[in-house]
């Protein structure tokens, strides 16, 4: 396991091999034979899960959690819990009012499940240090968080009610910045903004509602001397130029993207990049061999700024 | 003649994947009058049933919304009016077409999302051997 190699790759540098990050998430719960909902609300189990997973998979880095409901829950969104999945957001306080009208306040360290994460990080961090494995913090990106706050209407509002959409995305950006500060305080050396729904919009919408509302978060990460990334899911082809120029040290994509295209985009923009072992086709379904899929990704990714990870 | 419009939402998993979740919600948040005219199902690619439907519909990217077996919103979460227009275009009869079109200015409604998602089996069939309830 190799922290420095991972940090180098995230900064777009050459490495002697591609470092490896399993975005294990609730799979950690499966590995320690606990339900996901229980692990995500119990700091000791959460720490146990990520340390066990990092050791088992010989990870160079591992996220503390991969749960994009953290920020929304900490400002009052209700959750539906699942035993084998992450919680889903089931209420949207801004579905008919702005964050100010809804009385939303930025969270503190005692809000929502942040105390669980602080305690889990306190337990896990020294054990991960011994494994030479980076603890990663993942913040919910502004558009995904705006969707949690306002519901699916946000995708209509960006065209029909741009002032409302801007207000919600502005609050989401501020909330993401608070989360980044929390992750920095927890000792996460890499902090990623994770905005999966940002692949479902046009480039001009990304430029107006995603890019500006990530800037304070990125500044917070960089001012703390830490490494930044931007994770996006789905078919992000049309917004890849926006992703590469958003200002983070690196980005990561999922299995729907072509790794040769992604590598060339990353090299052109001199940023690190991660992906894209096929989560469904190889890891979940076994329709293609995970081993051969890994070889294809590793060959395409190369050793300049590349991190091998699921997509 | 069919008296309901069929909508298939092909996803990775609407719980795990936010884009998939909001694509499902775009249908679940349609107003009651529209809900009466549609039948919709989540097909997670994690299940064998989902893979079969993915192939049958000719879906190329996830998530995608198909209306009457046409892939209409591939990797784009639709605006309300876009959804209404595409549903009206594919309505099985003129009466339904007019009725759907008349609801263009109503907008999303969020009070029955959980109930509507449950009806569509959202998040319930995400294992390899899960059977999609139709």
Helix content of chain A: 40-55%
> Roughly how much helix do the residues of chain B carry, as a percent range?
25-40%
Radius of gyration of chain A: 18 Å
Q: Which regions of chain A have little confidence, pLDDT < 50, spanning 5+ residues?
A: none
Average pLDDT score of chain B: 91
| Largest β-sheet summary of chain A | 7 strands, parallel
Q: How many strand segments of chain A?
A: 9
Outline the fold blueprint:
The complex is a heterodimer of chains A (311) and B (134).
Chain A: H1 3-10, H2 27-31, H3 36-39, H4 43-56, E1 61-63, H5 70-74, E2 79-80, E3 88-89, H6 114-130, E4 134-140, H7 142-150, H8 154-160, H9 162-186, E5 190-194, H10 203-209, H11 215-223, E6 227-231, H12 240-244, E7 250-252, H13 259-269, E8 272-277, H14 279-284, H15 290-301, E9 306-310
Parallel strand pairs in A: 1-4, 4-5, 5-6, 6-7, 7-8, 8-9
Antiparallel strand pairs in A: 2-3
Helix pairs in contact in A: 4-6, 7-9, 8-9, 9-11
Chain B: E1 5-11, H1 18-28, H2 32-35, E2 38-44, H3 48-57, E3 64-67, E4 70-74, H4 80-89, H5 94-101, H6 113-119
Parallel strand pairs in B: 1-2
Antiparallel strand pairs in B: 1-3, 3-4
